């Protein structure tokens, strides 16, 4: 027996009786008997490998682990080599890759509207091509830092984090090619992983969630371009939050449903909404190796004039001023260097105007990669540069740490190593950057960010590492 005394909320199972593909007996058994699998998604730009791992079939570079290691005490987790994510959620990878095959644009501006803690944002970042831009938004201010930390670890340059309400995006009509709304929901899909969530479930809450989902979608809809794609997902089993929302989108906005190619061996249930026959994809834990999920994809067919982006409103830069920074950035000629207070940042030149348009209308919490401050011609490097994919490592010394030393570094403890050099050094584990330290003749100053240091108990932190 995996879960003792399991009591599903009143009416929950009865309400699901008509949900497509629902099999009450096996569904209950899966909650009682089958432990939730542990799965990770590897960062394609900071690769690592796990022993005895089995691929997640609907996501490139994702694996089920044979056993659950301690992620908190794995330096590679902190280096951004992988993300611990519930497997069903990774289906967004299949959808995005399929959209890519048929879309008219080559480069995507993607909005992840409900992004914290960043599971799907890091997934989207992994699917990004060179000229794509990802805007990861989170409405709740206190949840923004975890999102920025996860994206910093992942290392991509062309990401912007915002802290806005869905309705604020209406100020950017037709701006995005793809919008993901991974909506706040009643959360029944997470019951196996988090049985405490059962106490929160009620039919009333499902109704409230449904209303909130419609509101969020209506608010963000203007920001999607004509022929752009909306990906809608929840971790709820309730039709009110899933197929009924698809019918509402088709009826209210004339959206067209996109059918996703899936392999019948994957165990995903393909459904269609009652009125408009819009396609949806249901994940049940008795049928797939993963938790509950609903995902869908629609196209906007309504004409949407694009907002014009202002040009050249940037402060004119003295090129001499950025010369000392260029060596630290690979292919620096492709990047736009800009300053926020004393800090220098970069984003790809092609996204300069987009960033400006976003700055005009939204609260930006992170833009591109923060390089650091200049003290004379010397760089005081930022943590974001260390973890980024654009760092020119040849310009820095590296100090390779053993596992124990890496953990000590991540705790901001003293590190016991012989010092042969001095100055800024990238601290690495298995060749992957963890952050900075300054080497002095008789000591090491640890510059790992205080707010990221490992400090809680293993169990508490480890639970937090796993998200949708
Ligand atoms: C299901 S979680 C997102 C998980 C995330 N996409 C991931 O993969 O890690 C839903 C998010 O929506 C946010 N949210 C809550 N109310 C919202 C609202 N009214 N509008 C937009 N987002 C909201 C929550 O703060 C939460 O971060």
UniProtKB/TrEMBL annotation:
PROSITE patterns: SAM_MT_RSMB_NOP (PS51686). It comes from the Bacteria. InterPro entries: Methyltr_RsmF_N, MeTrfase_RsmB-F_NOP2_cat, MeTrfase_RsmB-F_NOP2_dom, Nol1_Nop2_Fmu_2, RCMT, SAM-dependent_MTases_sf. CDD domains: AdoMet_MTases. One of its GO terms (molecular function) is RNA binding. S-adenosyl-L-methionine binds at residues 114-120, 138, 165, 182. Keywords: Cytoplasm, Methyltransferase, RNA-binding, S-adenosyl-L-methionine, Transferase. SUPFAM superfamilies: S-adenosyl-L-methionine-dependent methyltransferases. The active site is at 235 (nucleophile). One of its GO terms (biological process) is RNA methylation. Residues 16-301 form the SAM-dependent MTase RsmB/NOP-type domain. PANTHER family: 28S RRNA (CYTOSINE(4447)-C(5))-METHYLTRANSFERASE-RELATED (PTHR22807:SF30), NOP2 YEAST -RELATED NOL1/NOP2/FMU SUN DOMAIN-CONTAINING (PTHR22807). Belongs to the class I-like SAM-binding methyltransferase superfamily. RsmB/NOP family. This is SAM-dependent MTase RsmB/NOP-type domain-containing protein.
